[in-house]
Amino acid sequence: MLFRKLFFAVLLMGSVTIAGCSGGGGTGDVADSGEPGAAATGDGAGDASATGSSLGGADADDDAKRPKRTSLAGRWIFVLTDVVNEYPGLLLDVTPDGAEGEQVKLLGTSPMMENFTLASGSVEGDTIKLALQPPQNAGGPAVQEIEFTGRLDEGVVLGEAQSGVGICIPSYLEATDKDSLADYREPRQAMGLREMREMRQSDDIIEQLRALATENARSPFIFLIYQQVLSMLDDQGLDADAATAIADEYLERAAQWGPCLTQRALIQSAGALASARYPTDIVLPYVERAEKSVEENESTSEGEKQRVRLARGMALAGSKSDEHYKQAREILTEFAEQAPFDTTILEGLAWAAETNGDADTALRYYAELAVLPGMGGNRAPVKRLWEEQKKDPAELEDFLTDVYRDTVLDFAEETESTVPTPGQRVAVCELFTGGSCPPCVAADIATGGLEVTYPASRLLVVRYHQNIPAADPLTNADSEARFAYYNGEGTPTLAINGTVLPTGAIPMYGPVINAPEAYAAIRGIVQRELEQSTNIGISLNAKVVDGNQIRFDAEVTGLDEFPETARLRFVLVEDQVIYPAPNGIRVHDMLVRSMPGGVAGIAPADGALKYSDAILLDDLRASLEEGVKQLEQRMARQFPSQPLALDHLRLIAFLQDDATRSILQAASVALSTDEADAAAESTESAPAEKPKADKPAAEAKPESEKPAADKPASEKPEPAKPETDKPAEADKPAEADKPAEPEEPAAPESSSDSDEKPAPESSPEPEAPSTEDSAEETPSAEETSDNAS
Fold first, then answer.
1. CB 555 within 8 A of CB 562
2. Is the CB of residue 739 less than 8 Å from the CB of residue 753?
3. Rounded distance between C-alpha atoms, residue 542 and residue 778, angstroms
4. Cα–Cα distance between 282 and 241 in angstroms, integer?
5. Which helix (H) or strand (E) holds 90?
6. Which of 75, 454, 18, 408 minimizes the C-alpha distance to 235?
7. pTM summary value
8. Inter-residue contact 122 to 103 (CB < 8 Å)
9. pLDDT tens digits, one per residue of 174-191
10. Over the range 272-294, which residues count as b (16 or more CB within 10 Å of their CB) and which as e?
C-alpha cells in the first residue's frame, strides 16, 4: 500500500547520509528533496511551473508567473511525500461556501493513487480536512483511512497525513488548472539533490545545509535537511548555543506542517542534543517539552515514547548529580538489555560512569564498545583509563578478550543440559567464514549463540576459515577443500546437517547488531533438525598420548547395510583460538584444524563402516605453519601472529551420504594436551534400543532423514556480498586425497593415507586401542553425558 510505504520511507530518512554512500543515486544515496511540485518527472513534468505549485527555492521569474491564491476555492492536487519523492494523487475541487458534504469533491486520481476514494472533506476558514479511503486488500485486514489536515498560508496548503497511531507524513495541496492527473504515472523528485551532493566534502557543511533549508523553508525537504544536520552535531563540534539554535530553527519550520510532525521534530532534536553530550541543563528542557507533548498526544506511538525516555537517560548521563546518575544508569541499562549492541546506549553508560567518577564501570563499557566486532570500536578511551588506573599494559589485551567473551553472546538463551537418550540425532552446523569478512560477523556470533543454547551432545558447530575476501592465517587446505565440496563461492556460507542455506534465506549477514536476529532464525532450523530421531549411532573413542599423539577409532552402528555413497568423516577442531581478526572477531570457537582420514571421507568396507588412526600434533602444527608461510609468500604480507596452541581440541565424527550431502549422525570427544598423558575420553551416538535398518538410499535421502518441508533445500549459494575476491588458481584447495581402504582397528598405522598424518621414524608407531584399553578408559555415562547423544 502506497501510504504505508511512504511512512516507512520517512522512518528511514534518518539513515540516509551525505558521505560514504555507494551506488548510483536513488534512495541509496542522498535523496532528492526540495520544493513540492518542482522537477517533476515523466509526462507530468511540466505541471509544476505551469501551475505555480513550487513552495520555495524558485527563480523570481517563475514566482511572477504563479497565481497567488488567497482562498481555498479552486482546483488542487493532493500530494503525498516521503521527503525524497512526491506522489501527486488526487484532483480536488474545493468550494469553501458549499453545503456540508459538498465543499470538497474528488474529480479524479493519478495512476499512483488509483482506486483511492474521498470519504469526506470540509473547509473551515483557512483549514481543510480530508478523509481518504485507500483500496482494501482482498481477503486482508481493513485498511485505515488517511486523514489530512492542512492550512492555507501564503498561497499554499501545508499539512500532514495521518493513519493510525504514530503514522504521519508531510503532505500538501498545490494549485492547478488541470482537468486530469492521468499523466502522473511516476513519482517526482523534488529539487535539492545536486546541492546536497556538492556538499559532501565541504568543511562548513552544516552552514551550507542550513542555507539550503532556508531556500526551501516551506518544503518537506526541511525534514531531511535537519535530520542530517542533527546527526552531525557531535562530529562537527558545534557549541551548545549553535546546536540549540539549529534545534529551534527546525522546530519553527516543522510547526507549519502540523502538530504530529512538530512532535517528531522535537523528539529528534532532544535525542540528538542528548546523544551529542551537551550539558544536562541545556538538553533537559527539550526532553521535558517532548515528554509533555507525548503525554498529551494520545496518538503517540510506543516507539516515540521509548525514544523520549532514551533521550532523558542520555541527557542525565552528563550530570554529576547522584540522583541523575542513578536515573541515567537505570534508563540506559534497561535499553542496553533490549539492544545489547547499541553503541549509542553503551556510550551513554560509559559517559555517565566517567562523569561521576566511576572509573571501573566506565572502563568496562568503553571496553565493550572497543571489542564489538564490525562496529569500528575506539580503543583510545580504554587505553586512557587503563593508564590512569596504572594497570599493567601487558594485561590489556587479555582484559579486552575477557570483555569480548562476556559481551558478544549475552543475547543467547541458555538451556539446561540433558542426558542423551537413545535415538537422538546430533545436528552439525558448518560455517564457512573468514577473519577479513565483515559480513561474516553476524553469522559467526549467531552460531556462537547456538553453542550457548545447545550442548555439544546435541549440536556441533564447526568453522572453516577461507581466504575470502583476503588472506586468513586460520585457513587450511582441508577447510578450503570442504568448502569446495559444497560448491561454495562466498562467505558466510552455512550448512546445517549438510544442507546449504541459500544466500538471503535468513538474515545472517553484517555486523554484530544483526547477530540476535540471525541467531533466532538459525535456531529455528536447528530445532527442527533436533526433533528428528534416528537408528544410526556412532561409537567414537579417542585419547591423547604423551601430549603429542591423538589415537582414535570410530564405528557406525544401526544399519544392516551401507550404501556406496555413505562416508564417515572426521574433523579436528580447536575449542578456542584467540586472534583479533580484521573483522573484529577476537575469539574463534570450534576452529577446524584438519580432517583426519581425508576430506573425501571413509567408505564402507566388508559390510562395516569403521576407522582408526593416530594424529601427531607436532606434524599437524608444522603443516599449519607451513601453510601460513606459503600464504604469506603468495599474498606478500606478514600476519601479526599465528595461534597454534592446539591444546584444547575436539574430535568430531559424522556420517554423511554423499548422494544427498545429508549428515545423518555425529559424535564428538573433547581432548586436552595439558597433561602429559591425557586420560581417554569417548562418546557414543546411541542408536535406538531396538535398531532397525534405516539404510539411506544410494540415490536419495531416506524418508526419515529428509529435512522438514520448510528447511532450505541444498543448493549452490549465491556469493554473499562483498566477498568477490576468490582465491587465485594457485590458492584453490587441493583435490582431496582419496583415502585408502580402511582396515581393522588392530592396525591403525596402515589404515589410511599418510599424507595428512605421517609418523616420523623417531616417533613411536601408533598402537590400536585394545579391548581392555577401551573398556578401562571409556568414561561412564555420567562422565560422557555432555558428549554422547
1. no
2. yes
3. 9
4. 9
5. strand 85-94
6. 18
7. 0.71
8. yes
9. 999 999 999 999 998 766
10. bbbbbbbebebbbebbebbbebb
